Amino acid sequence: MDEKMLLKLQNGSDIRGVAMEGVEGEDVTLTHDVANVIGAAFVNFLAEKIGKPANKLKIAVGHDSRLSAESLKEAAIQGAMNLGARVFDCGLSSTPAMFMSIVFEDTQMDGAIMITASHLPYNRNGLKFFTAEGGLEKADIKAILKGAAKLEPAEYDISDVETLELIDLYSEYLCEKIRVGANLEENYMQPLSGMKIVVDAGNGAGGFFADKVLKPLGADTTGSKYLDPDGRFPNHVPNPENKEAMASIKKIVNDSNADLGLIFDTDVDRMGAVLPDGKTISRNALIAMMASILAPDYPGSTIVTDSVTSDELTEFLEGSLHLKHHRFKRGYKNVINECIRLNEEGIVSPLAIETSGHGALQENYYLDDGAYLAVKLIIAAAKAKREDKTLASLIEELGYPAEAREYRLYIRGLEDYKTYGRGVLEEFKELAEARGIQVASPSYEGVRLVFPNEGWILLRLSLHDPNMPMNIEGKHAGDCDKLTNIAKELVSGFVHLDDSVMY
Asked: Domain Alpha-D-phosphohexomutase alpha/beta/alpha: where (predicted)?
């Protein structure tokens, strides 16, 4: 295998590539043979990491609803079994469930592989990996790909591979969390009786939540849609950040007069929600809601978020909930690792969460798990109903910016775009300071310009692509125009930075 080609499949702490033909100009890069050697390379990586011989390892492999999932799963299993590992085929699963296969006493895997590419188009796919420490880091992925380049694809008869109904174990785990959390003595086994909760799984892997979690707990799920797995994603992209997807769950809630609507991404590591009045619980509102639920148990604690959160969220977290807001870098692994670091230093941090919907709780192994966020939301909804309150009351003091924009400024004609981008940030900061503009400090990602009466501008370097996202939020109507004009002036002199999207 060509090492350079394999390394191009790295996407942060995941592996992603084109797994199917069908999109013009996109050649297949994640083939059966590539998945085969990656599966084998993970066995070698895991054996070295935990000090076990390959033939003593137990590895779980699962997948989401993508059309290429079965083929890639079989390839990864072949590669792993060829090196002697004991492999369990978990079939259709969710990314968080695959990690929990390591945790559950009944399974106790040494490692897990999830075949998924989250919300990307149908022709894409990828692999995520877990050890007992959680998801792998960027350096680990690079090591696996380098190891894969030294291996040859190997056929292996997997007709007798062991199977594991992991999603059933995981669902019962979630059910028990809700039973304990709701603490309903008169109906412990079905604490959601009398509640109507609908799910939009977008034909991803999240349909189980309606049938295996909500229904057994007594909830009425009538009206739920797109629960059946279909890798063509014929109805909408399974992505809580997608406008069509959120419009879909809002309509479902409205049409069925539901108490709560839940929407998941393809592999169920992200979630969004809709309240009975149509209010969307996503981005800043999702962060605020989860923090409000956790605040009584973690008074004065620190909430870690990504860098693009609003000032109004900070005001809510610190002013209304009396928590601390630690605005860190984008990237779910970045916020999770920062949350872990803070707790190890003795700074209590119960939640790491991105505006994308990735949210990880300290109490849940720092696992970004959309279904677990839904569990916390459902428990809060059950308690609110019992006390004749609403979920909306938890965030009624949260404010919202009047306007928001995002521009992606492409870095043209440079192979080493990251060095150039870092230089742009340094000069952007200097230009702003020279004009007397307030620069936020500390800033863990990019340069954030603060305009106390108008809003803010954040310029940062993309994690994976040759562009520089610029986020702007305005406190009042018309403020984004004012701030955009200032931003245009500040970036106008950078030859390789394409700012045409701002005009």
From this structure: 11-150, 193-278, 284-397
Residues 374 and 283 in one domain: yes
Handedness of CA 128, 134, 140, 144 (dihedral sign): negative
Q: Residue 444: what pLDDT?
A: 95
CA dist 187 to 47, 70, 171, Å? Answer: 47, 41, 19
> Do 417 and 324 lie in a common domain?
no
CA distance readout (Å), 1 to 19, 20, 26, 31, 33: 17, 19, 20, 11, 9
Going by pLDDT thresholds of 50, 70 and 90, the confidence category of residue 185 is confident
Are 459 and 374 in a shared domain? no
CATH of the domain at 294: 3.40.120.10
Q: What whole-number distance in Å separates Cα of residue 281 and Cα of residue 250? A: 11
The pLDDT, as a whole number, for residue 404 is 97
Residue 361 belongs to what domain range? Answer: 169-395
Q: How many domains does the chain have?
A: 3
Task: Let me know: does 326 contact 443? Beta carbons within 8 Å.
Answer: no
Beta strands in 24-110, from DSSP E residues, in sequence order: 58-63, 86-92
Tokens of 462: 């993309």
Residues for the chain: how many in total?
503
127 phi and psi angles, rounded to 5 deg = -135, 135
- Decide which of 366, 395, 424 is a domain's last residue: 395
Terminal CA-to-CA distance of the chain, rounded, Å?
45
Let me know whether 353 and 242 are in one domain. yes
> Of 335, 364, 395, which marks where a domain is finished?
395
pTM of the model: 0.95
- Please return the burial class of 435, using the count of CB atoms within 10 Å of its CB with bins 0-12, 13-18 and 19+: exposed
Rounded CA-CA distance 49/486 in Å is 50
178 and 43 Cβ atoms separated by less than 8 Å: no
Are residues 223 and 299 located together in one domain of the fold? Answer: yes
Q: Given this model, what pLDDT does residue 186 score?
A: 87
